[in-house]
Amino acid sequence: MVGSANFPENVLLASIYSQALQAKGVKVEEKFNIGSREVLYGQLQSGALTVLPEYNGALLGYLDAKSTATGKDAVNTELKAKLPAGLAILDSAAAEDKDSLTVTQETADKLGVKSIADLAGKAQDLVIGGPPEFKTRREQQFKDVYGLTFKEWKPTGDTTANALKDGGIQVGNVFTTDPKIVQLKLVALDDPKNLFSSQNVTPLVNTAGLDATGTAALNAVSAKLDTAGLTALMKRVAVDKEDPSAVAKSWLKSAGLS
Questions:
Q1: Domain total for the chain?
Q2: Percent of the chain clearing pLDDT 70 (strictly above)
């Protein structure tokens, strides 16, 4: 039984997992749009679900709110130690749906920036935007981790990507799989010091319900799925209104997994 949370990206990922398993002859039932992590986790523990698409950093935060691990390997090491018997994570994909600092392609070219670290010596001239709580949570971290002090912080909320394009801000907090990154040709800056916790797409499984064939099928998906690819798929689902199952099918075919 493959389950998903009740938001489009998770349904898409669950569709990919389900069809990848079926392509290898694994019998699958689907139970998508279930609800919150608390509900999903309980159903996985009980055996009502076998496979869930998870995000490693968020899952670790759920299991241990005090964890300070941020990099992918550190997060997964802690996850493996915290998960109860019977539950396991499989290989994490490179694909992440996480916070980022994002700029326009024009700004990236003009300033010569590819990572957050490249903003050193430039941030003091730049206006940054994001959700209202972004300044409270992150201002000191940017100073401590990267030595950055921005000129001004603007609460831009859901309009952050558009504010970047319109020039109202020069740097914005946009999630890495937001379709507007593709639509508006934005650039998510690398985060070499892992200020933002890793949120790698990772299968969470009930080991009693999954054999070696199923495990290999899901790990093969993780080996092929990256952030740019997932963002492009999400544009098809969220913007072009394509059916997640059809989008999953076409991706698996292009990845050689169906």
A1: 2
A2: 100
